[in-house]
């Protein structure tokens, strides 16, 4: 899928987009208290997201100056929904391009992809102190839940996570 709107076009990420996407993740992780930027890990994760699995997608928004935004989605099976749901991650637009509808355009691509696969629920995590992001999601119709996020990092085979 390749769609154009607000001076950018949204398409699936390509290998040549990696440097720009790593830069976007560096910016994103600088605002999220739970994550620390690690270029090698982020590069590895992005490569895996670009793999051929139909259960995950990675989109970029491309405009003048190259990649200006990105987001990803992965399918999970929800027993509550009785079928697939999608986890949205890495929604980020370059700081100098925010407020122009690019994030909305990226999220629209995710929704079209999800609807085309019979996915009935999208979910995401956002830092509770990232008020601009929370306002953005609220404006798109996203709702807070009563759930909280918990995590437990496991040791990697080559040492601590």
Q: How is the topology of this model organized?
A:
Elements: E1 3-5, E2 8-12, H1 18-31, H2 39-49, E3 56-63, E4 66-78, E5 83-93, H3 102-115, E6 122-124, H4 131-139
Parallel strand pairs: 5-6
Antiparallel strand pairs: 1-2, 2-3, 3-4, 4-5
Number of strands: 6
Task: Please give the domain count.
Answer: 1
CATH class, named Alpha Beta
Shape category: globular
Q: Quote the average pLDDT.
A: 92
The radius of gyration over CA amounts to 16 Å
- In CATH, the topology is named Aminopeptidase
Structure description:
The protein has 161 residues and is of the alpha+beta class. It has a single domain (3-139), classed as 3-Layer(aba) Sandwich (Aminopeptidase). Helices cover 30% and strands 27% of the residues. It has helices at 18-31, 39-49, 102-115, 131-139; strands at residues 3-5, 8-12, 56-63, 66-78, 83-93, 122-124. A six-stranded mixed sheet has the order 1-2-3-4-5-6. The mean pLDDT is 92.
Give the tags.
161 residues, alpha+beta, Aminopeptidase, six-stranded mixed beta sheet, 4 helices, 30% helix
Short structural summary:
The protein is α+β, with helices and mostly antiparallel strands.
